Structures are given as C-alpha cells and as structure tokens.
Amino acid sequence: MSAAEEVPVLIVGAGLAGLSAAVFLSAHGVACQVVERATGPSPLPRFRGLTVRSMELFRSVGLSGAIERAGTPGGDIGGIARVRNLSAPGAVWETAAWEDDAAGLSPADACACDQNVLEPILAEHAVRHGAVLRYGVEVTGLQDGEPAALVRLRERASGAESVVPARYVIAADGAGSTVRRLLGVARHGPGVLGHQVSVVFEAELAAELEGRRFGACYVEDVGGALLPRDGGLWQLSVSYDPDRGEGPQDFTEERCLRLIETALGRPEPTARVRGVGPWDVAAAVADRFRAGRVFLAGDAAHVMPPSGGFGGNTGIQDVHNLAWKLAAVLDGTAGTDLLDSYDQERRPVADLTLVHALARMPLSWLAADGAAPPPLPPQLPHNTVSLGYLYPPHPGGGGTENPREPSGRPGSRAAHLPVETAGGRTSTLDLFGPGWTLLTSAPGWSEAVAKAAADRPGLRLSEHRAGPGGDVRDLTGRWATAFGTGRDGATLVRPDGFVAWRAQALPADPAAELSAALAGALMIEGALRAWSGAEPASPPRTPPGTPA
Question: How confident is the model at residue 48 (pLDDT cuts 50, 70, 90)?
C-alpha cells in the first residue's frame, strides 16, 4: 500500500455537490482532489432545476453563462401540469409556476440544466483551475487525526490501495454515503417515502404538446411524472412497491415502452429508451454535518423529495458556505472554530428546507398505511425558502425573511440592488467575494477599512461607498433601507454574500468596531462578539467590541 502526498481538501464524490465544492474551492485558490467511485460521469439526467440562489453562486465564479447556454434559462422552464394522458381529448392543463417570480431579487435567473450536462461543465472548470479529478476510486477507510485525516482509497480497476492524508475531507458521496457510515453519523426525518424508476427516452411529442411547455407533468394513467430533458429527451418517472414483490428489474425495455405509450395516450413506434435508473423518494437530514476534519454535504448530509426542487440546490449552497471557511482556515486568516459554523448554519437550513419540500408533496406520499399525514406548516413562497433563509447563531437568526423586504441584519443574505460603478450598471451582489466587503454611505469608514486590512495580512477586505464621493451610485434610493445602515452606518458582508455584522451608526472608534467584528466573524482567538452582541444604536452608547 502506497502513501500519497497530503492534500489540503479531499472531496469524496464527483456528483453535483462534490464538483461544486471543487469549483468554489478553486475560486479561493485552494488545491483539492476529487475521488469518485463510479468509472465516469452518470449518463442519467437526475437533477435539473437550478434556483436563482444557485445561479447567483455560479455567476460569482463566471459559470452562469456556460450553464445557461447548455440548459434552459428560467423564463422558459414552464410550470407544473396535470393530465390524464397527453392525447386525452379536452384535457385540462393545470399549470403552476415552478418558482415564484424573482424579478428584482437578483441579477441571476433560475435555469433548467440536466445534471449529466451540468456536471461536465463543473468538472472542466474545476480541473482547469487546478482541481484533480479521479474516477473509479472508492473510499475503504477513514481515520481522523492530527495534523490530517487519513483516507484509505482503492482503485476499482486495479485493486491498488493508497492512504491519502487530507487536512480536510468533504463527504459528498450521495444518499448512501460511505463516509457518513464510517463516521457513524445517524440521520433524522421521515426516511424513505417511496421508490421510483426513471425512464429516459426519445420520442416525438410535438402533436400532443401543441406548443405548450411544462417543467413537469403528472400523468394520471401511469401515476407518474413526465419531464422534458436536455437534448430533446424526456423522462418518465413511475413508482414501484417492493412490498408487492416489485423491483427495478421489472422495468424491462418492453415494459418501459408500454408505459411511454400509455403516458402519450397512443402508440409511438419511434420511441427509444435511452436509460433506466431506480431512486428513492426520501426525506432525512444528518444529525451533524461535521465530524472532526470531515464535513458532510449534498445528499450525504440531507435527502429531500423532488417537490420544490430544493435538494440539489441545498447541496450547492452547502459547499459554497463551506469553501470560503476552509480557505480562510487554511490560509491562516481565520481560527479553526470557524469551521463549526458550517454545521451551525447549514444543518438548520437543511431542516427548514426539508419541511417545506415535504409541504409541497401530495398528502398520500406522507401518510403511511392510511395513517394521517404528519402536521406540516403552510408552504412558504419558493423564493423565501431558497433566498430568505437566515443563519444562526446571530441574534434573531434562523428561520426566514421575505427577500423582497430585506432586513440587512446579520445572518441574512445581503440584498441585490441595481447600482452603477465605474464599470457600468451592475448589482450589489457583484461587489462581494471572494474577500470581505464593507458597504457604507459615509466617508468615515475608509480609515477603519485600511487599518483592519493592515492589521490582518492576507485578509482581503474592500470598501464600497454609495453617495457623493463614493464609487457606487445607488440607482433605487434603497441602499440605507435594504442594508439597515442609516446615513452613516456600515455593513460587513462575508465572502458568501451573507451579512456578518452591521453598525447602524458611525461608532466613536470605527476601526476598533470593525476589527472586533472581523475577529468575531472569523472566530479568531475565540472571539464571538460579532455573533452574539447587540447592534450599535448610536456612537455615544456603543461600547467598543459589541458589534452585531
């Protein structure tokens, strides 16, 4: 058995979350290696709908354009339909939007892009920026320790084994995560709700659709859903019941062709089955997202039913949250306690998102053996779930807020506002990352920013100021309201675009306040003040070191 050179971050799993992790880590200059048990990318489409938030994140690393060109931009996705079959006379199409109107909430738009189309885009970008990607390699053992975790790997083709020391490990190896099992991390939630088989096929449906578009269509005659896929393909997903002796092996090509014709409501001699894959409709969240040097992300951390399209997007947002924190710890600008905030922030978001995915499911899925379904809260608007979640442990953190009425409070996503800079019209979101950003309307913060940056070598900190003499022109007049900074306060935005701290007025010593805020947000020397203090109300009453 050979020993390999230490890697800063080892990512287990080259699916959506694992490859997104490699993309975001590469954007921060962190070397990483991705190992994947499968011998190559999956040919099945699987995940499809990228939310506005996910497209914001890919936009921040220059990938949104490539994804939009490969997929279908949000305005053309279509809604949700229900028919008896596609040829039924007088069929009534009941349509509902997949995602609420996000106009004015973001410079990005939702996009439909099949996972087997999206993953190669992510992989190429990550490898081009320094990531190493290895297929056909599985994890067979893991030992946490100092100064690195030791991960035992086996090449499936040759059987050759090696041990890779990794400063940190991201387990993105799916719902049946080997790493989660090795760590002994349990999960909570309803568990498996049903079993499905997806049949990917090609067929000519123009006559039935008559120019109508949909993101998904429930077809009553087969009790399943029909979805358009990239490249002119279609997917029909139907359920099976193991308690009745049914299984994926029953879905022969002949049976799949019969199901396709039943869904279309007519014979279709040109139909061709391109792939068949079983999957479970499940709902569960890991009891912890961190175990020492190992972090769970994506389906390894949480599985969600497809209703709402939240699952894959939550995984993308997991690794975006984690990437900047790992980068800050590895380059020495943050304390290691910062990594605890990954679990503290992302696990409650996963729990909340799962509840609202369940709330969008048919009640029959949620009731076992005829029992009453579990109580669920009213559905929140889709954009509130995907854009309005709040991070604890900030004061008042957790839960959600309406993204159309941003509070600007710590723990919230910093608002999108149209602004103008020397480079032209843009969004406030384009002012953020990969470093830290101070937003203000007052000139009194510039010296504080310069001093804070000088005091912390290696920390990227920039200032953007709206108003006279500033580098940003507020085009809406909402700057002070959206960020809650008043005339001369300031907002400190993290590399992931979330508010870390806010002063609602200019303190007596802005340099001391900003320095304390950064120390708290970066968990340096155990400082937690930026996570637990009250917001400064006015300069005279603001004791040094109590940012919010």
Answer: confident
Check if the beta carbon of residue 523 is closer than 8 Å to that of residue 338: yes
* pLDDT per position as a tens digit, 340-376: 999 999 999 999 999 999 988 865 555 454 555 566 7
Domain 2-73+110-188+283-357 classification at class level? alpha beta
Retrieve residue 449's tokens: 């920013």
Give tens-digit pLDDT for 258-304. 999 999 999 988 899 999 999 999 999 999 999 999 999 999 999 99
The predicted model scores a pTM of 0.91
CA-only gyration radius of the chain, Å: 25
Contacts of 213 (CB under 8 A, 6+ apart): 76, 77, 78, 228
Dist. CA 175–CA 173, nearest whole Å: 7
**Structural tokens at position 475:** 């085009």
Find residue 162's DSSP bridge partners: 2, 153
C-alpha pair distances (Å), 225 with each of 85, 271, 283, 407: 11, 17, 19, 39
Helix axes 311-330, 52-60, angle to 10 degrees: 30
3 state SS of 522: coil
Question: What 3-state class would DSSP assign to 462?
Answer: strand
Domain ranges in the chain are 2-73+110-188+283-357, 190-281, 418-541
Contact 459, 438 (CB under 8 A): no
Q: Which of 5-9, 39-43, 337-341 is predicted least confidently?
A: 39-43
Residue 410 has pLDDT above 50, yes or no: yes
In this structure, CATH architecture of domain 418-541: 3-Layer(aba) Sandwich (3.40)
Q: Where are the beta strands (DSSP E) in 393-466?
A: 418-421, 424-427, 436-440, 461-465
Helix (H) or strand (E) holding 258: helix 253-264
Span of 105-109, 200-204, 525-529 with lowest mean pLDDT: 525-529
* CB-CB contact of 520 with 528 (8 Å): yes
Phi then psi for 223, rounded to 5 degrees? 60, 40
Fold of 190-281: D-Amino Acid Oxidase; Chain A, domain 2 (3.30.9)
How, if at all, do strands 436-440 and 490-493 pair?
antiparallel
Q: Taking the chain, what is the end-to-end CA distance rounded to the nearest angstrom?
A: 51
Distance between CA atoms of residues 469 and 486, nearest Å:
17
* CB-based contact 298:13 (threshold 8 Å): yes
Average pLDDT score over residue span 449-455: 93
Q: Let me know: does 337 contact 328? Beta carbons within 8 Å.
A: no
Say which residues have a Cβ less than 8 Å from residue 94's Cβ, sequence separation at least 6. Answer: 80, 81, 82
Active site residue 168: no
Q: Which of these is catalytic: 218, 240, 389, 391?
A: 218
Q: How many CB atoms lie within 10 A of CB 257?
A: 19
Torsion sign across C-alpha atoms 244, 245, 247, 250: negative
Residue 483 has pLDDT above 60, yes or no: yes
